[in-house]
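At this stage, I needed to go through a protein sequence along with its fold in token form, as given directly below:
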Amino acid sequence: MFPRIFSPPERQSYFLFGPRGTGKSVFTGNFYRHGLFFDLLDAGVYNEFMADPARLSRRIPEGFNDWVIIDEVQKVPALLNEVHRLIESRRIRFVLTGSSARRLRRDNVNLLAGRALTCRMHPLTAAELGADFNLARALKYGHLPMACTSTDPEMFLQSYVRTYLQEEIQLEGLTRNLPAFSRFLEAASFSQGSPLNISAIARDCAVNRKVVENYFSILRDTLVSYEIPVFTKRAKRSVIQSVKFYFFDAGVFRALRPAGPYDSDAEAEGAALETLVLQEIAARNDYRRWNYGIHYWRTRQGTEVDFVLYGAHGFKAIEVKHSDRIRREDFKGLRQFKAEYPEAELIFVYSGDRRFHEGGIEIVPAEVFLREMEEFI
């Protein structure tokens, strides 16, 4: 097990959300060794609590003063009423893990009215991997724990995608047309790191626009995508309004993206590097509680900055380029952003190996930026 930099709340119950395979169960199993565990992926446990959620109280011994962990709590949303009662009546502390918020929101269930905090588990970070971090491998296979340890990460990722389609989508009844959803996932992979064009994706999938909108909501609710809004504060230039889309992990994106003689590997690697930077920023932002708003910036003329981090912790503009050579025009977006927002710090992340400053821009090799992110943001 890789040591995680996630620090859980010390005394208050909390939800721990995250996509399948990010390590929620392994983390809770190691961190709460003396806790009481209920895994709702276990058919026996699921059937027991589905039939009568009140059985949870009877399964917790009187005087028990450690943590109770309920894995995949969204499987039996009615359990949350019993959890609420036990927090109030017996002061029991819960960890409630989940890989989907869809059923919880759809069924309008009890989310414990602030009695439980909300945390998120991400794929591994470069810091957590330590000496095992390898940028070339990460660009191809991402940072899901099993992808980092498997002897056949490509097969693991293909299996992960199939499991996601079968378990998260089909068994949960989120869509009846699984072939159309599979086509949608492939089409969405070509939007990685780009402003979303729902109508174009609907045409590619040969389905209605409303159907595609629902498909994107499924990705959001099952926590396998990011949608990054455009930065608009005090805007002088006209900016576009579309969100920018990413699958949550570079390896999952590469597994979904077709690879053939007419598909650009260089383009896919560029999108993978952006994804790796984003997932690292998102993880550190959550784990360290920096509370950055994560945005991007793009004018209607096409000038863009990949990521804008804005909050009390700082104001950063970050451009990512999968190239070991730097051209003057690569700085165009950052310089225009600086002209509009002179308070912003500028960072250029690239695939080279030399770190230096040029005209107020900090230029950082991608491996250094990912390993030592807290120095920069």
Observations:
- The longest helix spans residues 265-287.
- The radius of gyration is 22 Å.
- The chain has a mean pLDDT of 91.
